[in-house]
Amino acid sequence: MTETLPPTGIDLFDVERLLLTEAAEPPLPPQDAEARDRAWDMAVRANPTLFDGPVVACGGLERTGPRILRLSWVRVTYRHYALRRVPGATALPSLFVNVVQPTDDGRVLAARMSPSTAAPGRWQLPGGSVEPPRDGAVLDESALAGHAARELAEELGIGVAAEDLKLWVVTRGENGSIGLTYLAPALPEATLRADFAAAVAAERVQGREPELDDIALVRSPEELAGLAGPHADYLEPIVRRFSGCR
């Protein structure tokens, strides 16, 4: 028996299995499509680094059994989320992966977004939006873990096999956005800092601004609160959960 999950703010769902099905994008009235495009064009003028690439949105999330969630996903582009700025229109929730990267002494790595990103100065977990599968590939649990591993490598320079990442919790937060949070194997602080420094240097050698410009290692929600700047809505609940599980 399935159970539609009610919208109640920042939610964390225990999960051991994720069932994925593709769904079609809901039809959009022409006036909403025109308003979306105008809002997107304004956003690009304000931040020329925005790119209307392919991305996966969440079409629905429901519980089908103990620790089993069914997630329907929809192919859209980043332009779709400009619907959030259109009065009366409804945008699908975004879908992203992120990673809890612990240290071997029990702290969690938080990362700060660079000034050139869509969320400058925001502290969050390493991760990013899910991209749709290509060339007949499927979007399944293995593919999602692969997404998370690539984000960890690209943003922090940390090499971890997808099979070593464990889907730890599913979050639902602002705008109903769904986050798939993976737990990575613990690493020494020195390794994390050296890998991050190397990743930042490699980006700058290529003439690119790194997506992340700083990291911090926190042991508790109280330490997290000491990080100046905005925080991703899921960050405090995730740190609290991790610190309580040790």
From TrEMBL:
Pfam families reported in the protein's UniProt record: NUDIX
Organism: Streptomyces hirsutus
This protein's name: NUDIX domain-containing protein
SUPFAM superfamilies membership: Nudix
Domain Nudix hydrolase as annotated: residue spans: 90-241
InterPro entries linked: NUDIX_hydrolase-like_dom_sf, NUDIX_hydrolase_dom
Coiled coil stretches, renumbered: none
